[in-house]
Amino acid sequence: MLDFIARRLIAIIPVLAVVAIFVFLMLRLTPGDPAAVIAGDNATSDQIADIRAKLGLNEPIWTQFAIWIGDILQGKFGESYFFKKTVAELIAQRVEPTLALALCTLAFAVCVSVPIGVMAAYRQGSLFDRVVMAFSVLGFSVPGFVIGYCLIYVFAIELGWLPVQGYVRIGVNFWQFAERMVLPSLTLSVGFIALISRITRASVLEVLNEDYIRTARAKGLSNRVVLMRHALRNAAVPILTVIGLGIAILIGGAVVTESVFGLPGLGRLTVEAVLSRDFPTIQTVILLFSVVYVVINLLIDISYTLFDPRIRY
Amino acid sequence: MFAFKKSALALVAAAGATALLAAAPAQAQTIKAVMHSDVKILDPIWTTAYIQRNHGYMIWDTLFAVDEKFAVKPQMVDKYEVSPDKLVWTFTLRDGLEWHDGKPVTSEDCIASIKRWAVRDSMGQKMMGSVEGMEAVDAKTFKIKFKEPYGLVLESLGKPSSNVPFMMPKKTAETDPMQQIKIEDVIGSGPFIFKADEWKPGEKIVYVKNAKYKPRAEPASGLAGGKVVKVDRVEWLWIPDVQTQVGALQNGEIDMIESPGHDLLPILAKDKNIKLTNSNPLGNQYAFRFNSTAKPFDNPKVRHAVFVAFAQEDFLKATIGDAQWYKVCKAPFVCGSPLATDVGMAEVLNGNAAKAKQILTEAGYDGTPIVLMQSTDLQVLTNLAPVAKQQMERAGFKVDMVSMDWQTLVARRVKKDPPSQGGWHAFLTSWVAADILNPVMAGFFNASCDKAMFGWPCDATIEKFRDQFSKETDPVKQKQIVEDLQKYWVDHPTHINVGQWYSPIAHRTTLEGILTAPAPVFWNMTKK
Questions:
Q1: Residue among B42, B414, B417, B435 with most chain A CBs within 10 A, to mutate
Q2: Which CATH architecture has domain B8-19+29-38+187-280+504-527?
Q3: How much is the pTM?
């Protein structure tokens, strides 16, 4: 097991190197000049050239890359061109809302989608099954921002139950934190619920036709025990895989959801950094997302052993 | 008996409630506003962006300021005098001016601040070209000596929009003008104090009332007069999504939106708890900028043909829509301003395609495609370029409209490469009217070749007019110069003004006291 973890951790290095090169080149090769953005609308060409020189953007692209990689290896993530704060500080400031959104979404999505997926499989062809499948198609098809606006209209503006936007840190006021998390988490979890419930249904259906399920039933075990202990546990591996892959959807969705609900998280930081061509911030945030994605998928791989004793690393 | 008990209980309850109310601390009055952008940079001298200008007005004060009629009035200055030969200006500061850290504001601070501002601002640069020197007479008095009489001293020191000559402590003002000031140096003498510990870029910036601020005795008017702060705290929250901004305003989570999208105004107008207030009656002006160095726009006659081909109302209908929020106005120095005039403009901006075609033929236009940059992500600009393309094509131009996001456009417009190799011929933008009230202030009138703004017009006659204007001290003669300049400029345009438009503030009806001013300011505001 330790060998496996070590090998996977080492495998992260080339992945991050590719991401770093790709992101760096994409930013340098696409149009846009941070110096011109910083200088403002009334700046002269000389002022812009001066800022460009001060930011080191006149250096050859490979020199800029070498400087950046050198800094990263020393744990220096640079300073944002715009915020005049280190990127590490910015990320530290923005990580809580994104983490809270991701955890609430994940918890809500798993709690809802796994039971309804199992029930849909158990009652295959019933009205409940059809409703779940129709919902999953809808969940995939409707963009997150549309769901967000609809929820805002109904629950915030019409009913006045929840705030439209904003974020209160969990340590400041838990209830205000919680009420501001409901709508964004619901919005982001719709697609996730659709995905997981569909996969859960398909996996459980496959398992329900296995001989050992028939044996369990023949032994006189209750439906609940058959479903939870035998069917769901054996169907867990594909479900976990999808949850792991879904982290990418979660990260992408967070960018939109944080913008719609005014959450000052990493997703919004990414958008702001891209729009203002804040190269150090974009590069570091994307690297961070890559690390998170790879590490979560490693944890998911490790968790397979908990559900399927046949899997050994 | 029962009635007596009930009354006694009610009395006890009322007394208890009164005692509780008396014991409870007074609720701090906080205005929560969503501005047009997030405050990422704290130095209003270093950048010309309007959000930094607005931020500057919260913290720093100015020597002079314009009132709502655009007359320049003393602000930090108590009195000033000019020598008979108009070469020496002496300024005396008001009593009791203090920085937020408790130190007094001195002449040395002001001299250092003027010097730093003048490096970054075009009007400042022009003024400093005529300045022989500045010296502090005492802690409250300083002099500016000129080499020759200069006509725009007060207009420069009271410049209302970017870059505004904000006064900063000497130590801060001695920062290299090409570097931003440090966060610990965000100390002003203005009506609000910046809360550095609560500043979260991308989330919010917080200002609290400067209790020690001594406002002028005159009532507030525009950016001048008494800056009396009537709330305890102002928070600028950053909500990037316009639809969410509107929802938050309707839900009472915020008190105002500085510039809601025009397409959302009908929704806001229907809400009885929300009011739309146009606090900037001069508004903004759309401008079509030529690259005067690129063929065929290096030929003034070709540029004039575009001027003849354009009709303002088509641009305004396509972008703003509701006539309540726009004005067809030929005056390049903005309708409603002291220098507004239509002189020389009779033949242009009438959408006369036939005449434009004729001028174009006479100019020898060879069919070179015009690279017109269109920005697609700023709602107030997006529809301008398609209208320009259509009107130019009607006049016989070939137009290649290239769409991109605003930041890409910003980067491309500084490139002097040929248009076919990554350069450009033209783009459209918008100016806040307060930035273009005279030919020295208006950046697009600068025709000093490489020193001019992108587009780099090179016209000695325009420069001569601008120079004359800056040195003329008689307002009547200044107006004559503007008329002469305008007559010449119509045939040798550096840009084209394609209409005036307004962006109202959307606010809860509980928010009152919004001042009519070229920049949104938060003194004088009250919240019920």
A1: B414
A2: 3-Layer(aba) Sandwich (3.40)
A3: 0.84
